[in-house]
Amino acid sequence: MRLLKSLTVLAVVLALALPAAAQDRAKAEEVVVAFAAEPRTLLPNTIVDWTTNNMLEHMYDRLVDRDPKTYKPIPMLATSWKVVDGTTWEFVLRTGVKFHNGEPFDAQSVKATMDYLKDPANKTHYAPLYAAVKEVQIVDPQTVRFITEKPWPGLIDRISLGNAILPMPPKALKEQGVQALLAKPIGTGPYKFSQWVRDEKLVVVRNDDYWKGKAQLKTVTFRFIPEFSARLAALMAGEIDIMKDVPPHAVDLVDRSGKATVRATVSSRINYLALVTLNPGPMQDIRVREAIAHAINVDELIQQVLRGRATKMCGPLSSINVDYSPKVQCLKYDVKHAQVLLKAANIDPGRLTLTLDTPSGRYPLDKDISQAIASQLGRIGITVNVVVNEWGTHLDKIKNRKTGDMFFLGWGPALDAQNTIEQLSRTRSPPPSASWIPRSGWRRGRRSSRWWSARSRGSFSGSSTISTGWPTGSTGNPAPTRRCGCTKPRS
Asked: Would you call the peptide bond into 413 cis, given omega within 30 degrees of 0 as the criterion?
């Protein structure tokens, strides 16, 4: 399930030995979670962004979820599904479910949501993800059929991962419009919208009529604290109960503090450097891109920047991906070969200046990794100017194709090959989303980008580089796609 499934078990114990404010929250069944960034919108099925969807999915439900241990699709708002023929999937919907405004959840909800996300006027990031869906047919109030343009066996994977459809209330959508749902989300989830103070916090309160039963916590507040040092200070002071994104150098500090602990788990998320081939110039020469790839020492990045808390990948699929093959060979770090390639491309590295765009705080040590990459390329004479962006600005630059020659980004969840490779390597015009632009980085071959792992060996959170989250099964039912790697105050 969602992030809060990971948090509910902790809420009772985490505040017992903390300052009065934290103890008061425990008594009130409230928890405060700190993130580095706020959601980019509160309108579901619109923007593909982990931070945004993580918070939205406390207020909305999916049709199909994922088992936290096996990662296999399991029922949520849809209780069963089957393939009717080569281009038809049928879903039976759960009865007795209501939206927060009292509207019943039914087949019309699913159809209205699909119509919204596929409408070009809405400019959603989800439209290209479901381009293969020709229409949603209503069989009866509790049964819908997805009619696809051609056979699509991966549909069930698509709707049960991070790009899942989150059904919206059709009457409210029609009568009140999109802006009303943007201002006040109306889902079927375990929590209802209460308040969103831009750049400060998002507050959700318990839905006592939730179809799966009441959640343990009455109130959850997501605070937005961009800087790690400020998040850590808030944790130690008892101002927050859980924080996300703990960089490697701080893990031991947190664990030794006596006030908090760090938990880690394996994740499918990845971080990568995308090499942009959209503009005329050296980056359109595959020899230059291969030279850059050979000049980046991923092992060094992992050991010196990430303190060994990551795993190098030899391609776009992590080992947790069901389609992963251990036979793929890693690209070797080879400075001499990089110089040979640049010479063959008639490029003098001493006269080559590139720009690398990076976020700061979205992924653990993202800025530091980008600066280390710039330093490594400097060893062969290439000058790299690192441009540090606020997360929203970073996504906008990628979406609008305004980045420099390279950019740093993450991708996840990545549990099946199609949902990873297709989105990162398709050659047609990209949709307006950061998540697909990376095709310019490696679509011509794996040598066009560098990857390091989604596989956590330490203590990070929700990011791709080193993802951490609550150990599966120990704190409820965290879904692999919404797992939060965080720290919790120690009782």
From this structure: yes
Domain containing residue 117: 64-175
Confirm if 179 and 122 have CB atoms less than 8 A apart: no
In the block, residue with structure tokens 């989800």: 126
Residues 222 and 276 in one domain: no
Q: Over 80: is that where the pLDDT of 400 sits?
A: yes
Q: Average pLDDT over the chain, rounded to whole? A: 80
Sheet of 30-35: strands edge to edge? 191-197, 201-206, 219-224, 30-35, 242-244, 486-489, 260-262
Q: Tokens 């990971």 appear where?
A: 6
Number of domains in the chain: 3
Task: Judge whether 285 lies within some domain.
Answer: yes
> Binning pLDDT at 50, 70 and 90, where does residue 363 land?
confident
H or E element in which residue 134 lies: strand 133-140
DSSP letter string, 12-78: TTTTTTS-HHHHHHHHTTEEEEEESS--S-S-SSS---HHHHHHHTTT---SEEE-TTT--EEESSE
Per DSSP bridges, beta strands 270-275 and 450-452 are antiparallel
- Characterize 140-169 residue by residue with b for buried, 16 or more Cβ atoms within 10 angstroms of its Cβ, and e for exposed: eebbbbbebeeebeebbbbbbbbbbbbbbb
Considering the domain architecture, whether residues 256 and 280 belong to the same structural domain is answered as: no
One-letter amino acid for residue 100 of the chain:
H
On whether the pTM is more than 0.85, the answer is: no
Q: Do residues 253 and 336 both lie within one domain?
A: no
pLDDT computed for residue 264 by the predictor: 73
pLDDT (average), residues 105-131: 93
- The residue whose two tokens read 């969103």 is 196
294 shares a domain with 439: yes
CB-side exposure of 40: number of CA atoms within 13 Å? 20
Asked if residue 225 and residue 147 are part of one domain, the reply reads no
Whether residue 136 is found in the same domain as residue 68 = yes
Q: What is the DSSP string of 428-471?
A: SPPPSSTTTTTHHHHTT-GGG-EEE-S--SS---SSSSS---PP
Q: Convert the pLDDT of each residue in 218-234 to its tens digit.
A: 999 999 998 888 988 89
Span between the terminal Cα atoms of the chain, in Å: 25
User: In 3-state terms, what secondary structure has residue 338?
Assistant: helix
